[in-house]
Amino acid sequence: MPVFNIPFIMRIVQRGTSADISLVWATGVWICVMGMLPSSLHSSDPVLCAYGLINAVLFSAAYATVLYFHPAIRPKKKN
Predict the structure, then answer these.
(1) Residues whose CB falls within 8 Å of the CB of residue 13, separated by 6 or more in sequence, listed in order
(2) Quick one: pLDDT at residue 75?
(3) Model's pTM, two decimal places?
(4) Other Cβ atoms within 10 Å of 32 Cβ, number
(5) pLDDT-flagged residues of the chain (< 70)
């Protein structure tokens, strides 16, 4: 599942906008992922630990991309 963040990021960068992505949704998912991270890092299961860490890193990158390209955060300059 975390690997699907890579094409998501690539699509946003290629289009140059994340206007069609809800900031509320992206923030909610990011909060949930970060909320689950401590539990997965304390797990004795190495697969869950790796999954939680990779998911947190890749979704944080996706969240940062959404914020960077969202017109509500960074409006486009008028020519």
Answers:
(1) 65, 69
(2) 77
(3) 0.89
(4) 11
(5) 77-79
φ and ψ at 18, to 5 degrees? -125, 30
State residue 78's pLDDT score.
Answer: 64
SS3 79: coil
Q: Give me the pLDDT at residue 4, please.
A: 94
Inside any domain, residue 79: no
Q: How many residues does the chain have?
A: 79
Position 63 in a domain: yes
33-59: burial string, b at 16+ Cβ within 10 Å, e else:
beeebeebeeeeeeeebebbeebbebb
Tokens of 79: 């020519």
The pLDDT, as a whole number, for residue 2 is: 84
Look at residue 44 and tell me if it is in a domain.
yes
Containing structural domain, residue 12: 2-69
Determine the Cα–Cα distance for residues 79 and 64; give it in Å rounded to an integer: 26
